[in-house]
Design a protein that fits this description.
mainly alpha
Length: 227
């Protein structure tokens, strides 16, 4: 009788512990996946949002610098000669191309790609306009150069700035969503952690119950032998 009871208890305990171990294993895997996802989210926010955001700032600065260089030259406030101005513009264009190329290598959504293509078109149009302005200047047609620079050039410049702002807004929105997703994963990981603690408590209670039952059976067996 005693041995059959022990066997039944051991089978129940084994089945219970097997189920608990399965839950622990699944919870552990889920926690590992949550941690990996959070790590990937953090890396993505840095590589695909924070660094490109800095590149956008530098790109905007270069765009404004080109505008100011040309404006200062046309108004006679620049100490640069026309060849020196051309060299400065070529250098700024090369830096802008490098920043755009680096930006394109990041993970972009379709809206970002679309806006970036628009900005590249604005940049190309603006460079052509700069060349037209400089040609007018070289042929002593400064007034025409100023009109072209202020009117058509001003519109292209504002379009380019607006496009950069639109890209920055998209970057901010995607980054915010990535952070929220990471927070949800962290909350899920906390829940899984509490589940593991609860499972450990249950295992402890099961072991205590088994030990208590074994002591009670031993006492009954001793009383039976005494009688």
């Amino acid at each position: 009788m005693k041995w059959s009871y022990f066997i039944r208890q051991k089978v129940k305990a084994a089945a219970l512990l097997t189920g608990i171990l399965a839950v622990v294993a699944l919870a552990s895997l889920s926690m590992i996946q949550a941690i990996q996802y959070m790590e990937q989210s953090i890396e993505s926010v840095y590589a695909d949002r924070l660094k490109p955001a800095v590149d956008l700032v530098h790109l905007s600065e270069l765009f404004h610098r080109k505008r100011l260089l040309m404006q200062s030259f046309l108004t006679g406030q620049s100490p640069l000669m026309i060849q020196e101005l051309k060299m400065e513009l070529v250098k700024d264009n090369a830096q802008s191309d490098s920043l755009i190329s680096r930006f394109e290598k990041t993970r972009l959504i379709s809206a970002e790609e679309e806006k970036l293509n628009v900005f590249k078109a604005d940049m190309t149009a603006y460079i052509k306009l700069e060349n037209s302005v400089l040609r007018l200047e070289q042929t002593s047609r400064r007034k025409e150069a100023i009109v072209l620079f202020e009117n058509q050039g001003g519109k292209i410049f504002q379009d380019g700035v607006s496009t950069l702002h639109a890209i920055a807004d998209i970057q901010s929105d995607i980054g915010r969503k990535a952070v929220k997703s990471a927070h949800r994963q962290a909350a899920g990981g906390f829940i899984i952690f509490m589940l593991l603690i609860a499972v450990c408590v249950i295992v402890g209670l099961v072991i205590l119950a088994l030990l208590k039952n074994e002591k009670l059976i031993d006492r009954k067996s001793e009383l039976f032998h005494l009688n």
